[in-house]
Amino acid sequence: MENELFQTLTSLLAYSCIAIGSAFIVIGGIGVLRMPEIYTRMHASSVTETAGSLFVLIGLMILSGLSLATVKLFAIALFLLFTSPVSTYALVNTALVAGQKPAVVKDQTSGASV
Amino acid sequence: MSFLFFFTLSFVLISAVLAVHARDLFVSTIWLGVFSLMMASNFFILDAADVAITEAAVGAGVSTVLFLSALALTGEKESGRRVYRLIPSIALLTLAVVLMIVSLDHPRLGDPSAPVHQHIAPWYLSETPVLIDIPNVVTAVLASFRGYDTLGETLVVFTAGIGVLSVLGFRPKRKAVVTAAQVSRRTVRIRDHLILRVVGKLLIPVIMLFALVVQFHGEYSPGGGFSAGALFAAAVMLYGILEGPDRSIKAMPQVIMLRLAALGASIYIFVGIFGMLLGGNFLDYGVLSSNPVAGQQLGILLIEFGVGLTVASVLTMVFNAFAGRETY
Amino acid sequence: MLEVCGLALLVTMGLALSRGVLGPSIFDRVLAVNMIGTKTVLLLSVIAFLYDRPDFIDLALAYALINFIGVMAILQFVQNKALRNPSVEKTVSQDRPPEA
């Protein structure tokens, strides 16, 4: 009886983590398509990608219980946690060095750019 | 699952069309990386995990790096006009339509009564637990039942490495006009960025360790010599990208890589000859130990090590030859 | 729920692919390829669960490693393109800033 309750709770937790992760991922995808400029697209992609991946992988880890698959999923999650932000940094740095200028909004009243 | 299959197949088609259509060869290269990634997903959906892992490691990792190194030596824009001719287009379209009509006649995917599942596949599946006793039937077929073919493949990889070196140059008689160190100094290197260096150097031992796991665990999980060699070479390429080609060449010198490649193929051949010396046939692993099943497992372990050694050394050698770009 | 996650991943890969097709500059395309790579890692993990074959997660791990190497190689190449090709500002297009 208690085991069943525990099972239901863990399944619920796992599925909600996976749902949140999927929502993040789709939001990131829409953001990459709709954002006006390259730097804003990179920001949309990187933040949602890291967060969404971590949530989905945590959900899968809870689903698989205590097994070898959990250790492998933990390794993938750790790896993605390290390399997604670093890839974004490298991409943005290269774009800046190559001469892509970010869009600035000129302040109308004083003429200084923000 | 057919829905998933439909998606990945259409991505394969789209990325292939984009790769051919792009005028900038750099864009073509990255679309080819996506193409091989989608093919790896297809193989994965079709339950062929060994092929998928090798396709992912070789196609999306090693191939992309080698293409980019080659593009750095030549130009990037496709030169010349594009001409669309009528007769070849019609011929190709006819061929495509004929192939599609013929493919409707195939048996259903995975049908157990299809002819391809009748002759030798049930024999492999039933005899592997008896004769070799390892869970991964693909490794058993590749390394033991079809060992000659795998020996041929290893020698082909070695020959390809020699072919590349004969074009790009190796151990010339005179001193290089532009050395690898000068090339490394002229280019803007990723080693000037501290974050990338630190994180990248943390990851290189992890990738090498994973490559060794895939190599020696190939009897129990998807893997084996070819994918492990490609992953190990990918780790060395990461080091070369992060630190510069001169340090990569100093860490893995070309002379030693060539000897190691030859050593890998030699291990394979020597296991076969050793079997002959012990009284069996060439590449007969059963005589390697008192228990034939243990002998088979020992033989598979040794030749997979030889294959992995050859593939890793050849790919490292080719990468160093491209990225070092010494001109004479 | 796992099927829904798989569908979400496929939709996002389609969106990233459209950005790769449309994107005027090279960096849009590199961004799209990076996104497709990480989504494929997740897709492979989810499919491994759907098929109940947990030993296929090795493939997702291998691909996560390979994706990073591919992006680093592309960026090294693009950085040196600016050195080799002095007129790189013409090949890299500037998106219009939004009118404020």
Descriptive report:
The complex is a heterotrimer of chains A (114), B (328) and C (100). By secondary structure, chain A is an all-alpha fold. Chain A is built from three helices and no strands. Chain A has one domain (2-98). Helix content of chain A is 80%, strand content 0%. Chain A is elongated, with a radius of gyration of 20 Å. Chain B has helices at residues 2-21, 25-45, 49-73, 86-103, 121-131, 137-145, 147-168, 180-186, 194-216, 225-243, 245-251, 254-277, 292-324. The longest helix of chain B has 33 residues, at 292-324. With 328 residues, chain B is mainly α. Chain B folds into two domains: 1-100, NADH-ubiquinone/plastoquinone oxidoreductase chain 6, subunit NuoJ (Four Helix Bundle (Hemerythrin (Met), subunit A), Up-down Bundle); 136-328, no CATH class. By secondary structure, chain C is mainly alpha-helical. Chain C has one domain (2-85). Helix content of chain C is 78%, strand content 0%. Chain C is built from four helices and no strands. Chain C has helices at residues 2-22, 26-50, 57-84, 88-91. In chain C, helix 1 packs antiparallel against helix 2 (26-50) and helix 2 packs antiparallel against helix 3 (57-84). Chain C is flat. Chain C starts with a helix and ends in a 9-residue tail after the last helix. The interface between A and C is large, with 54 and 54 residues.
Structural Rg of chain C: 17 Å
Radius of gyration of chain B: 23 Å
Largest sheet entry of chain B: none
Number of strands of chain B: 0
**Main sheet attributes: strand count, strand direction, barrel closure of chain C:** none
Strand count of chain C = 0
How would the global form of chain B be characterised? globular
The whole-number mean of residue pLDDT values of chain B reads 86
Helix content of chain B: over 70%
Order of helices and strands of chain C: HHHH
Structural class of chain C: mainly alpha
Number of domains of chain B: 2
